[in-house]
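Deliverable D4.2, example record:
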Amino acid sequence: MIKKTIFLLMLLVSNSLLSQQTNLNKYQYIIVADQFDFLKEVDQYQTSSLTKFLLEKKGFEVFLSNQKLPQDLNNNRCLSLFVSVKDNSSMFTIKNTIEFKDCYGKLVFSSEEGKSKYKDYKKGYQDAIRNAYESMEDFEYSFNPTLISEEKAVEKEEIIAKNISDEVVSNVVVSPKVIINSEVKNTETTKGKDLTTLYAQAIENGFQLVNTKPEVIFILLKTNIKDTYLIKDKNGSFYKKDAIWVAEYYLDNKLVKEEYQVKF
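Output generated by the structure prediction step:
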């Protein structure tokens, strides 16, 4: 009986690891936060650069969030997972876990907790991160783009089913009418034309952007990446490029790219 129980537990752990590994294999890139939430400075104690270095050893193509990104990743942040280190330290022990989240902020994978008894912060945080990484020893990464196509097909079927069965309800924070997809005008501009200006109003977990009428154009949800948001109820992202804010989302199965000025 005991042997059977142990075998079942090992089988469950193996299946769980395989499932998590498959989830990561569909992502081409990793973006590591250049400053973790529990630290006061960018790459303090070389924690971000160490995390980047360790993940590169697994075969991931890794960037810090303050680095220049490939064009395809700039165009679609959902090609990447976003990695940060979570701190659960106590008075005498530094405890860190490495967390992988998708572009919607959903946790995809988490390492086991790495611990360190070093009193020196630099040695302690680096030791804890290395120990968290070592818990991924059996994890093998291999980018598989076919997994993306399979997932998109499933998502498309789910969206069609939802549109048929559900009544569309807009959860708006204030009274102005929400512009739905069919009313959105492509405001992507060429050089020399003025950009539409939107005004940010803080809401829970993000902002809503309104125009001068006022109408709610976008509802933005925060991510772990600086100046990058998810657009609620749209398959897209809203991010800052130089001094311009860019909205990218799908409308009628076509990628729409719009540029705005935003007043926060």
